[in-house]
Automatic annotation (TrEMBL):
Domain SLC12A transporter C-terminal: 669-786, 800-1048
UniProt name for this protein: Solute carrier family 12 member 5a
Bias (Low complexity) ranges: 917-935
Localization: Cell membrane
Keywords linked to the UniProt accession: Cell membrane, Chloride, Glycoprotein, Ion transport, Membrane, Phosphoprotein, Potassium, Potassium transport, Symport, Transmembrane, Transmembrane helix, Transport
Location (main, coarse): membrane
InterPro entries tied to this protein: AA-permease/SLC12A_dom, KCL_cotranspt, SLC12_C, SLC12A_fam
Native organism: Amphiprion percula (Orange clownfish)
Length: 1048
């Protein structure tokens, strides 16, 4: 392809870049083509021949395409390539078989409204389609390609399949139309189930069975023709088109002739009821002959004997027989009578308006089969559904886009011209039929009152047979066209590979003829033929076509509104409002035709959409829906105000920090399992990892790490984003992640990081330093912090706890994180069966009974189910064990200091000693804080900090920089404050072990790190002591804001 990264760039390079003029761009020439070579390769780009995916493959496999035989460019102009195919596809069976009946039932005004609505819909759709078709080279495959490439594979597949089903059912409709013409008007004698002498339901059933048998025969023969060779179908297309045009001209000629000399088509009316003119010759009760008055065949139909004194049908006896003209002609002014509609129930008599009829209301209807009756119940919306298929077919031109000389010019002009022509013919024919034909004849669907002639045929000149034969051939032709078009469409969809279930239909014969698709098409078509009634099949295909047109309009409106940079159609006369109007019209018509079919069609389209989304191949076609998501995301992010959300909207937006090993594999996969289990909050998840080095050198490593993260997130079913940061040291990289992740209002508010495992090992001293810095940074940034300890012991997503407890040790109120987390965990299958228990610690001077009551009430208001327990902790003496433990801890830390001292650190140490010797600042709290007590201000309360200088005396310089320091270590006394902290940790740990050793998970307030840096390793030790002997612990530190509320 002429574009970047094409394969033979290297070969061309030597020839094209000899000149020294472009030395400045030498680096780029390896990857990007020069403009001159780009233009020359674009100029040779010929429009592609018929086929499905060639255009995409051609861009990728340039090398192969050069070996293929050169394709002669297709050469069809606007007239042959677009206009005539569209006309042939739009004019169809409905015009000949149902148009007169529609005018008779709906009235000229009603039918005109229907025709106008349908034509407006197709015109608006054509405008949208022209815009899409002229936006870039349209390959063969027409409408399906246009929609799928502009709305994405999901919509493309749904619309493609709707369009396919529509075309297939259109084939069924044409076949039914052809059979109706054959059996009722051409050779009524051919019926396998004879209709003679049958009445009512039986006659109807016989007719439908005839349709089924003959329809199946015709379908089989058509499918065979299509299978044997499409070229015959294409050769016959012109013949069929000629039939259509001749038939329509014959009708117009007939209309003109009625004005000069109306044809003689008498209708026999008894009272005001139209009679079926089949078994009698003269429209009179008696005729005068030389031998006197003789009764007619009509008399013997209604009376028991041909004698004048016979007993006759009551209605026959009391009404006169009149003969009226079926076609009074344009000038007769019959239009006024036909302006308004007459809707009938099934089995009603087709009666002539404004004629007398003497009848007893109580008389039952006798001899019903002598009269013309309504064969279906009609109403306005039914007419819409039956009429709409006669305006479909506007895609015929764009479906041949591969054969056109200049598709971008031909498609808009040809399609719009064809729609204008056909709409003019339809609208004029509505008025002309109403102006020429008697109302009872119009409403007589099968022409029984006019000697069984086709009603539109009675109007034609020179003879009704022109129309009958012409329309028979044109319907057969249209059926063949449908049976050729539909399988190709299905094959195109199958070859795209977006619907895995359809893969088999992509295969065909060696020459690419879609054999399997044809088979499926024939089967679906047969289902339409088994319905057997043209009036029932028409609304079905109306649905599918309307659905398809609706999406074309949607595609155009979306692209225009989103102002995608790539949306620059050549066809300029479109506007999003027009597309939108077209879309609403389509939707309205769908529900007008029949709301239940509409719902079924939508369910079909919706389930296909979901199926492709779920199972389909990942295709990136640069579609409009992707653009819509982008716009919507941008809009939503702008709406999310920068400030913190209201407590009710608070949900954990997690930043999960994971470590990677040298191979960029994730070290703690269980961290992501825990993330998934916490995701009932439906917040944002960012999984981040930090790498050491510079971005330029470690770029590939970063990409590998990102892929590993993606893969793990998929396996653990964590929906979110991943981010890899590279920095000169891990500490900074983590800090960058903490600061820069998220966007606008969509930022993380909680950090999930696992406890550093072997922090006590000498070489790991950097990991715990990093960990404590992270704790400090989250506190400074007001982020919540969750630290799972023993992460490898946490359950995977597949495990299920059948019973057990989640225990919450609520020592300090930190905004309610401790309450919220178990609630979120219990939404997940793993923890669903666990019960929640809340423990809180009472000091000496607390009223534990009152505390329990208050806590229960609080939880009740929070709508959280949990058991409550208050644990009393008495101030006991500090045990020798505590003293010992503290001493060992402090000695160890001094030893570490000795060993790890580098020159830099020595200098820093001196500085620290100098700082520590300065007098305590007044801001320092004068009393030691144990975890059970609250600090002075709410801000401090969350910090939960301790400081070395609490005792009010300056801390002793630890003399580490001198050799004698080592001797000091072994005879040092433990710091009082450390002893108290250790005491708290040990006591709490004892209580927790006593109550919660069996719990599946223990949640615990995490104390904050010391203010100054000297006691850092002691802090780690305190936390170890606090959680000793517990299997799964989640240390929680609030972000300094309320996250849970009692208000709704």
């Amino acid at each position: 392809s002429p574009f970047i990264n094409s394969s033979d760039a290297a070969a061309e390079k030597s020839q094209q870049y000899d000149g020294k003029n472009m030395a400045l761009f030498e680096e780029e020439m390896d990857t990007s083509p020069m403009v001159s070579s780009l233009l020359s390769s674009l100029a040779n780009y010929s429009n592609l021949p018929q086929g499905s995916k060639e255009h995409e493959e051609a861009e990728n496999n340039e090398a192969e395409s050069s070996r293929k035989k050169p394709v002669k460019a297709p050469q069809l102009g606007t007239l042959m390539g677009v206009y005539l195919p569209c006309i042939q596809n739009i004019f169809g069976v409905i015009l000949f078989l149902r148009m007169t009946w529609l005018v008779g039932i709906g009235g000229v005004i009603g039918t005109f409204v229907i025709v106008f609505m349908c034509c407006a819909t197709t015109m608006l759709t054509a405008i949208s389609m022209s815009a899409i078709a002229t936006n870039g080279v349209v390959p063969a495959g027409g409408s399906y390609y246009m929609i799928s490439r502009s709305l994405g594979p999901e919509f493309g597949g749904a619309v493609g399949i709707c369009f396919y089903l529509g075309t297939t059912y259109a084939g069924a409709m044409y076949i039914l139309g052809a059979i109706e013409l054959l059996l009722i008007y051409i050779v009524p004698k051919a019926a396998i189930f004879p209709l003679e002498g049958l009445e009512g339901a039986e006659a109807e059933a016989a007719l439908l069975n005839n349709m089924r048998v003959y329809g199946t025969i015709l379908l089989t023969s058509m499918a065979t023709v299509v299978f044997v060779g499409v070229k015959y179908v294409n050769k016959l297309a012109l013949v069929f088109l000629a039939c259509v045009i001749l038939s329509i001209l014959a009708v117009y000629a007939g209309v003109i002739k009625t004005g000069i000399d109306p044809p003689d088509f008498p209708v026999c009316v008894l009272g005001n009821r139209t009679l079926v003119w089949k078994t009698f010759d003269v429209c009179a009760k008696t005729i005068e002959t030389a031998n006197g008055t003789v009764t007619t065949q009509l008399w013997s139909m209604f009376c028991d004997s041909p004698l004048l004194n016979a007993t006759c049908d009551k209605y026959f006896a009391s009404n006169n027989v009149t003969q009226i003209q079926g076609i009074p002609g344009v000038t007769s002014g019959i239009l006024a009578e036909n302006l308004f509609g007459n809707y009938y129930e099934k089995g009603d008599l087709i009666a002539r308006k404004n004629m007398e009829s003497a009848m007893d209301q109580d008389d039952p209807l006798t001899n019903a089969n002598r009269y013309v009756l309504a064969d279906i119940t009609s109403f306005f919306t039914l007419l819409v559904g039956i009429y709409f298929p006669s305006v479909t077919g506007i895609m015929a031109g764009s479906n041949r886009s591969g054969d056109l000389r200049d598709a971008q010019k031909s498609i808009p002009i040809g399609t719009i011209a064809a729609i204008t022509t056909t709409s003019t013919v339809y609208m004029s024919s509505v008025i002309l039929f109403g102006a020429c034909i008697e109302g009872v004849v119009l409403r007589d669907k099968f022409g029984e009152g006019v000697h069984g002639n086709l009603v539109i045929g009675t109007l034609a000149w020179p003879s009704p047979w022109v129309i009958v034969i012409g329309s028979f051939f044109s319907t057969c032709g249209a059926g063949l066209q449908s049976l050729t078009g539909a399988p190709r469409l299905l094959q195109a969809i199958a070859k795209d590979g977006i619907v895995p279930a359809l893969r088999i239909f992509g295969h065909g014969k060696a020459n690419g003829e879609p054999t399997w698709s044809l088979l499926l098409t024939a089967c679906i078509c047969e289902s339409g033929i088994l319905i057997a009634s043209l009036d029932s099949v028409a609304p079905i295909l109306s649905m599918f076509f309307l659905m398809c047109y609706m999406f074309v309009n949607l595609a155009c409106a979306l692209q225009t509104l989103l102002r995608t940079p790539n949306w620059r159609p050549r066809f300029k006369f479109y506007h999003w409002a027009l597309s939108f109007l077209g879309m609403s019209l389509c939707l309205t018509l769908m529900f007008l035709c029949s709301w239940y079919y509409a719902l079924v069609a939508m369910v079909i389209a919706g389930s296909i959409y979901k199926y492709i989304e779920f199972a389909g191949a990942e295709k990136e076609w640069g579609d409009g829906i992707r653009g819509l998501s982008l716009s919507a995301a941008r809009y939503a992010l702008m709406r999310l105000e920068e400030g913190p959300p209201h407590t009710k909207n608070w949900r954990p937006q997690l930043l999960v920090l994971v470590n990677t090993d040298a191979e960029q594999n994730i070290e703690q996969p269980r961290l992501l399992s825990l993330t998934n289990q916490l995701k009932a909050g439906k917040g944002l998840t960012i999984v981040g990892t930090a790498l050491e080095g510079t971005f330029l050198e470690n770029h590939e490593q970063a990409q590998r790490a990102e892929q590993a993260l993606h893969k793990l997130m998929e396996t653990e079913k964590v929906k979110g984003f991943c981010q890899v940061t590279v920095s000169s040291n891990l500490r900074d990289a983590t800090s960058h992640l903490l600061q820069a992740s998220g966007l606008g209002g969509l930022k993380h508010n909680a950090v999930l990081v696992s406890w550093p495992r072997n922090w006590k090992q000498g070489d790991e001293h950097q990991t715990w330093r990093n960990f404590i810095e992270l704790v400090r940074e989250t506190t400074a940034a007001h982020l919540a912090l969750l630290v799972p300890k023993n992460i490898s012991a946490f359950p995977s997503n597949g495990e299920r706890f059948t019973e057990g407890h989640i225990d919450v040790w609520w020592i300090v109120h930190d905004g309610g994180m401790l309450m919220l987390l178990p609630f979120l965990l219990r939404q997940h299958k793993v923890w669903r069966k666990c019960k929640m228990r809340i423990f809180t610690v009472a000091q000496m001077d607390d009223n534990s009974i009152q505390m329990k009551k208050d806590l229960t009430t609080f939880l009740y208001h929070l709508r959280i189910d949990a058991m409550v327990e208050v644990v009393e902790m008495h101030d006991s003496d500090i045990s020798a064990y505590t003293y010992e433990k503290t001493l060992v801890m402090e000695q160890r830390s001094q030893m570490l200091k000795q060993i790890n001292l580098t020159k830099n650190e020595r200098e820093r140490e001196v500085q620290l000693i100098h700082d520590n010797t300065t007098p305590a600042s007044p801001a320092t709290p004068a009393t030691p804080l144990t975890p059970g007590e609250a600090a002075q201000s709410p801000g401090e309360q969350v910090q939960m900090t301790w400081t070395e200088k609490c005792d009010g005396e300056p801390a002793k310089p630890p003399g580490a920089a001198t050799p004698e320091g080592i001797k000091d270590i072994f005879n040092m006394k433990p710091n009082q404050f450390n002893v108290r902290r250790m005491h708290t940790a040990l006591r709490l740990n004892e209580v927790i072990i006593k109550k919660s050793s069996e719990a599946k998970l223990v949640l615990l307030n995490m104390p904050g790190p010391p203010k100054n840096r000297t006691g850092d390793e002691n802090y780690m030790e305190f936390l170890e002591v606090l959680t000793e002997g517990l299997n799964r612990v989640l240390l929680v530190r609030g972000g300094g804001r309320e996250v849970i509320t009692i208000y709704s």
